[in-house]
Amino acid sequence: MGCRTPSNVEPVGRPGGPLPRAASDVPALLAIGGPMKGAPRVEIRIETERLQLRPMGFDDADRLASIFQDPVAMRHYPSLIDRPGTIRWIERTITNYERFGYGLLVVERRDDGEFLGQCGFIPQTVGDEGGPEPEIAYLFVRRHWGHGYATEAARACRDWGFRFLGVPRLISIISIHNEPSIRVAERNGMVPVAEITKPTGVPHRVYAITREVWREFAGP
């Protein structure tokens, strides 16, 4: 996850090769409902065996702060995010819903509604050509790490993105030092396709999966 990426992109590979798991193993369902506070009228809801993903609203500020104020969870970010920054984060997410039809989603456990984190899409521009494309991004409460929630949510977003956004590929932009997030991207069928350097000076890799590769195991 991160901000708009700079243009110094160096290709390092091509997506392809076998994928570790079929999309049908983690079913993603789309539902449309009424408005919630601080969210657009049309809600995107994705469900998996254990998780439910819903639009983010201002009522989620305190829950998000439990991640944004955790120095371990935020160690690959430039800094912690305070309360005003959290509100701006939510505002940007709502703007993305309205402008692009996608954005980050709140992830909850289906059986008890426990807040786990966020996963969804951030519009990112990689390189000098073309417009924004959806990045699958994820950030979870630390006490919920190690249960496979990030992988399950990211796969569900991948499937939803290809089925409903009509994009040729989906990406994830990850610090070269963030090994857990890299593993999630790899489990999501992604491979490194470019390298960039963020304004902080930290090298990141762009991971991607194309629609063609996804179709090999997801079907039409």
Describe the fold and architecture:
The protein has 220 residues and is an alpha+beta fold. The protein has one domain: Gcn5-related N-acetyltransferase (GNAT) (Aminopeptidase). Helix content is 27%, strand content 27%. The chain is built from 5 helices and 10 strands; from the N terminus they run E-E-E-E-H-H-E-E-E-H-E-H-E-E-H. It has helices spanning 61-68, 83-100, 149-164, 179-187, 211-218; strands spanning 10-11, 29-31, 45-47, 51-55, 104-109, 115-124, 133-140, 169-175, 191-197, 203-210. The protein has a 6-stranded antiparallel sheet with strand order 2-3-4-5-6-7, with helices on both faces. Strands 1-9-10-8 form a 4-stranded antiparallel sheet. A hairpin with a 3-residue loop joins strand 3 and strand 4 (51-55). Helix 1 (61-68) packs across helix 2 (83-100). The longest helix has 18 residues, at 83-100. The chain is globular and about 40 Å long. The two termini are 29 Å apart. Residues 1-42 have low confidence and may be disordered.
Concise synopsis of the structure shown:
The protein has helices spanning 61-68, 83-100, 149-164, 179-187, 211-218, and strands at residues 10-11, 29-31, 45-47, 51-55, 104-109, 115-124, 133-140, 169-175, 191-197, 203-210. With 220 residues, it is of the alpha+beta class.
